[in-house]
Amino acid sequence: MKPTLLDLPLQADDKNKRIINRILNTPSLLVGSIMLIILVGLAVLAPFISPYHPSDQNLYAILQPPSSEHWLGTDQLGRDLFTRLIYAARTDLKIMVLAEIIPFCTGVFLGMLAGYYGKWIDTLITLVTDTFIAFPFYLIVIIVAFASGAGQRGLYITFILVGWIVYARVIKGLSASFRKQEWVASAQTLGIPGVKIILRHLLPNVLPQAVVVLMTDMVGLLVAIVTLGYLGIGIAPPTPDWGTMISDGQSFITTAWWLSAVPGLAVVYTGIALSLVGDGLADLWRRK
Amino acid sequence: MIKSSNLLRKFVDIDSPRRWLLLALIRAAVVIICVVTAVFFIIRIVPGDPAKMILGEYSTPEAIESMHHTLGLDLPLWEQFVRFVQNLLINGDTGSSIISGTSSRELIAERAPVTLLLIAMASLLAILISLVLATLAATHKDRLLDHMIRIFPTITLGMPVFWVGLLLILIFSVRLGWFPVGGVGEGVTGTLHSLILPAITVAFSQIPTLIRSLRAQMLEVLESDFVVTLKAAGIPNRVILMKHVLRNSALPTLMLLGVNISYLIGGTLVVEQVFGIKGIGSLLFSSISKRDFPVIQGIALYCAISVVIISLLIEIASWRLDPRTKGK
Fold it and tell me: How many domains, chain A?
């Protein structure tokens, strides 16, 4: 029997089913994704979930313990902690994602260049990464963030400057190992120019690994954003941010410990979700 | 001519350990030169005039000019760089503090001991804790204990160190009253006692990576032929573990800590801030808030150069000690 048009969507369905099955068989990916979806959902829907505004002060209800009215209590200015928590998720997650874009692209590209061409490009890029790595990460971040001005702009400049190194290092090694493989050699004998080989053939092969690194790196980036906020050189108040919330709560650690503990838990939650997704993706691609 | 180039080739023979050592030294030296150059250019890359940052937005042009002169910023760039390197080579210094006039080398040397002590304590704790946990995980492979220990890195990866420090203060200082809430105590025992919580905090950030690779390392040793032979010879498990497996895993742990030394120092700077310890970290923050550029440069330079030297030493040590790379 000839295949009819009716068979085609069925095949597509099959393919989708297989992908879904694979995801279901990778529990860490499943759990991590669900955790992320909940988090992003809370952040995006924040104005609809909470009846309060993150900077609404209520001096008659300061430092209240959790209650049905204020799910996680209130801070020293009577602001609702839960509201601030989910609004802070908007700020921190937005910066985390946006600040990763440029470092991810430059790092992957430079890594491929160094790995594919080797020689002096490799030497040069290795020298630059070695120099950057000699400086303790937080030292660089603190100095650059401070010098380029507190606030979000400083955060972006900092991560554009230092964020690409992780990717460059990992992708360089990976690309160097691919360079010795037959398909690269055959592409070269066909006379395909190097840049084209890198973008068309090397890129799809290194991308999965780069995405796995992206997941762990985002955790580190989030922790750095929060740390800078805590140190007072990151996101400036009144924009809600988990880091400044923790440092605000520090003065009340003896009486209202949850003010500092809860925003930290939000960071830990995000970290677990992202590393579960990263582990899951790595598993998924390894089995493939 | 031919002879000398042959000699040179002999000296830098591909398999010769000398060549390896020479290359490692050259590489470290080049990185240090780059580090010095980077530190010199830090205040020039960054947007904004350092003199204006020091004096404030509304300073007079004359004041800015005289500040330029004090900082040496009115000189041509290459001359500034030569002076910077000269001062560094002769005095080991990056200039005097703009605020107090003390040399930044002295300021750093004054604060360094407590930071170094904290780093040493944290490294020791990190090694001890991860050795114990990794041993437990490796000897209970695929059992509940192993799974519990393996989840640990996933959970702790996203924990900000300063937050861990705050929780430890809350539990052990505020609630239980075992340790001071902040600051450094008097005398040797007082100092050590007050640094225990900060050291645990710094160690905490290192433990996840250490456990992950140590566990893998130990499994490899546990499944190796010589351990199987020892077991067959009837030597008790505990003796094998203490005498052979641990000894074989200690070196890789130290190496890994060396690789992470940069993160360790960075974490320490932040943790000092949480516990109110007057070390390099607090010097960094006070210099930053006073825009004291020479001191900031000095801290960056000393941290980076120690990282390069420590990594080099550990690289050499592990290469000398590891029998597998001895012939290399």
Answer: 1
